[in-house]
Design goal:
The chain is of the alpha+beta class. The chain has 2 domains: about 130 residues, Reverse transcriptase/Diguanylate cyclase domain (Alpha-Beta Plaits, 2-Layer Sandwich), CATH 3.30.70.270; about 35 residues, no CATH class. Helices cover about 45% and strands about 20% of the residues. It contains 6 helices and 7 strands. The protein has a 5-stranded mixed sheet with strand order 1-3-4-2-5, with helices on both faces. The protein is globular and about 50 Å long.
Length: about 170
């Protein structure tokens, strides 16, 4: 067994995909997926790798930002995700700073789930995972706009208003 590792930059899309699948297959909208956050900062890479291979199912997804790990556990409620967390703690023989959020109970979409996760981890785990703001839809759109603007030498007026061509380029 082993989960599938995805790039950090794909985390929001991964959540959206799993919500879409859950919505398609689960008309009752029961707890269809749970996100498990774990702080593995006290463990080395090899220990982490071994734990992932021995604990996770092939259907589970993994995303990490440095030693903060996020697991998307489809068709797993909080009780089931807590079992996964306990398996990690038994593997490492230590308590792990963690938090669980479930769809649709804790959020109706990826933005709500990520926001709830951020505030809860800050409050209960005392960890700042504000870097997840990079994954927000608005931040993502801004990055795309700036990339396009720089490629096409377009100025962007007051950050969020309509782009216009630099007048010097038009002449």
């Amino acid at each position: 067994m082993a989960g599938v590792h995805f790039k950090y930059s794909d985390f929001r899309q991964l959540i959206k995909l799993n919500i879409g699948i859950a919505g398609r297959l689960d008309e009752n909208r029961a707890e269809s997926l749970t996100l498990l956050y774990c702080d593995f900062s006290k463990f080395d890479k090899e220990e982490i790798k071994n734990s992932l291979e021995s604990i996770l199912r092939n259907s589970d997804s993994i995303v990490n930002h440095k030693k903060d790990y996020y697991f998307v556990l489809p068709y797993t409620d909080k009780y089931g995700a807590d079992i996964v967390k306990t398996m990690f703690e038994e593997h490492f023989n230590k308590k792990i700073s963690n938090f669980l959020v479930s769809y649709p109970v804790d959020g109706e979409d990826s933005s709500e789930l990520i926001e709830f996760l951020q505030s809860s981890v800050k409050k209960f785990c005392k960890n700042d995972i504000s870097y997840l703001d990079e994954l927000s839809e608005k931040w993502y759109q801004l990055k795309i706009v700036f990339k396009i603007c720089s490629q096409h030498q377009v100025e962007y007026c007051e950050l969020m208003k309509t782009p216009f061509l630099n007048q010097d380029l038009v002449k």
